Amino acid sequence: MEQLCFGVDIGGTTVKIGLFQMDGSVIDKWEIPTRKEENGRYILEDVKNSLNSKLAEKNYSKDQVEGVGIGVPGPVTSDGTVLKCVNLGWDVFNVEEEFGKLTELKVKAGNDANVAALGEMWQGGGKGYHNMVLVTLGTGVGGGIILDDKILDGSRGAAGEIGHITVDYDEKDACNCGKRGCLEQYASATGIVKEANRLLASTDKASAIRNNPSLTAKDIFDAAKEGDELSLELVEKLGRHLGLALSHVSAVVDPECFVIGGGVSKAGEILTEVIKKHYEQNVMFALKNKEFKLALLGNDAGIYGAARLVLDK
Amino acid sequence: MEQLCFGVDIGGTTVKIGLFQMDGSVIDKWEIPTRKEENGRYILEDVKNSLNSKLAEKNYSKDQVEGVGIGVPGPVTSDGTVLKCVNLGWDVFNVEEEFGKLTELKVKAGNDANVAALGEMWQGGGKGYHNMVLVTLGTGVGGGIILDDKILDGSRGAAGEIGHITVDYDEKDACNCGKRGCLEQYASATGIVKEANRLLASTDKASAIRNNPSLTAKDIFDAAKEGDELSLELVEKLGRHLGLALSHVSAVVDPECFVIGGGVSKAGEILTEVIKKHYEQNVMFALKNKEFKLALLGNDAGIYGAARLVLDK
C-alpha cells in the first residue's frame, strides 16, 4: 500500500498544504484561509478537516498516512512546543501533541524558515546536498541551516538568523531588530531600494532607476543587466554585504552549498555570481569553492520541508 | 567491574594521555614523546604500548576499557580518516581502523581543536551546557563548536574556523591564511602584540608597555588592570573584534555559551567581560545574554575531550 505524508505551512493569511509520496513527489497541493479569530483556535481543526477531505476525495485511507509535518511562523522547540506565534494569535503550547491528538497521526513541527530550508534541500535548489544554508531575501532576510539532513534550531530557536549579522560598522539607521548595520538593512527587498535612494541622492549621475517613485529591487537588477552604472554599483555592494555575511556563516558551519531564495532571488544568476565573487574574497582557503544555487520551490518550500520532517526519526 | 576510557591527544612534540572513569574523573595522566621519524609510523605503536603498561601498572584488565579516543592535529572525517597531519608526518589513513586493529579496542578520533571543545564541555568551562563554542586564543585563534553534545565538523572539517572570520575591512597586512582582516590577526597572542606596536607607533602618549622589546599579551593585560590608558584602549579593541566575531557565530548556531581558552585567556575576567560587552552590542535581541566562561582544563582539554568521544554511540 502506497505511503503518503502531508506538509502543512501555516502562514498569517493562508495555510498551504501538500500531499506527498514518500519520495517527495507531490500528489496535490492547495490552500485554506488562516482563521485567526479567538487567538487562532480554529486553525488546527480547519487543517484536520482539510486533510480528511483530501483523503476522502482521493480515495486514500488514513492508514496510508505516515505523518504530518507542520511549519509555523515562530520559534518551535525540539519537543514541538511553539513559543507564541504572534501572527496567528497562538500562545505557548505543544503543537505536535495537540495536532497529534486531533488527528491520531504522527506530527512533527518546525519553524517555517527552517522548514523551508529543509524543503529546498529535499526537492529544491539544495537537492543532493546534506549540509546547506538557505538565505531568503524577501521583506526581511531569513536563514535556515541544514546539517546532516537536519534543521539546526539553536539553543533558543534563533540559529540561522543570518539577516541580523552585522555587516556595516558605520550605519546610523537602526534595523527592525534595534541594532545597526544588519545584513537585512541592505539585502532585503526594501533595503535594496533604500540603498538605491541613498546612492541616487549622493550623485547627479544619470541612471535608468532615477525618478521612479515605485522603484523595486527588480527594477535595479533589470537596469544592472542592461549595463546601468549606478545599478551595477548597487548590485556590487549588495554582493559584498551578502558575500561577507555568508563568509562568516561558512567559517562557522562549513556547509556544502548556499541556496538563495525569496523574491529578490528572481534576479537569477547575476545575484548568485556577485555573492560568490565577494564570498570567495572573504573566506580562508579551506572554505573556498562552495556552491551557490538559486532556490527552486518558491512559496512551496514550506510544504515540501514540512513533509520532509515526517521522514526523520 | 569499573569501566574506563583512555583519552589520547597527539601533538607534534608529545602525546598526552589520560585514563578516565566513565564519569570524567581522571585516574591518571602522563605524556610520551611523539616519534615523528619515518613519517610518524611508530606513534600509534608507542601509544598502544603506553596504554598497556598503564593497565598493567594499575592492575586493570583490558576488558574494563570501554574505548580509546584520539585527538589529532589535522582534519578527521566522520569515519575516522585523517586527511594528512603535516605535524606528525602522517599521510591519509583511517586512524580509527588502524589503532583499533592494533589494540582490539573501540577507537574514536577527532580533530584536536574540536576535541578540546568537547573536553571543555564535558569537564571544563562549558560543563552543564550542551551547545557551546570554544574559542582558543593562542599562537593562532582556533574554534570548536559543540551542538547537542557533539562536535560539529562541517562538510570539509573546517567548521569552527573562527580565527578566519573577517572583522576588519581595511586591513592592509595579510593573515597566515592569505586573506586580510581575519580575527586571528588581532586576537592571537602575536596579533595582540602587533596591534600594541601599531598603537604605540601612532602616538607619543606615555604608557607602561612602551619600550619593552619582549612585550607580551600578558604585559598588556597587566598594564590595563593597572589603568594604563593605551593598554585599556588595546583591550577594548580586542574585545570589539572578538565580540563582533562571536556575534556572527551566535547568529549562525545560537549556542548557550562561549568558552574562552588558550594562553591569552589567562588574563581572566577582564577578557570575558570586554568580549561580552561588545558581543551584546552586536547581536539581535533573541541572542542577547549568553554566558561567557573561561576555559578550565588548559592543555588537558584534549585528553578529556578525546575520552569523551568514546561515550558517543
From TrEMBL, chains A, B:
Enzyme class: transferase
UniProt entry tagged with the keyword Nucleotide-binding: yes
Gene3D superfamilies: 3.30.420.40
Taxonomic source organism: Anaeromicropila herbilytica
This protein's name: Glucokinase
Enzyme Commission number(s): 2.7.1.2
Any one Gene Ontology cellular component term annotated for this protein: cytoplasm
Gene Ontology biological process terms from the UniProt entry: glycolytic process
Keyword Kinase included in the entry's annotation: yes
This protein's UniProt keywords: ATP-binding, Kinase, Nucleotide-binding, Transferase
Molecular function as annotated in GO: ATP binding; glucokinase activity
Alphabetical list of InterPro entries matching this protein: ATPase_NBD, ROK, ROK_cs, ROK_glcA
Family: Belongs to the ROK (NagC/XylR) family.
Coiled-coil regions listed in the entry: none
SUPFAM superfamilies referenced in this protein's UniProt entry, alphabetically: Actin-like ATPase domain
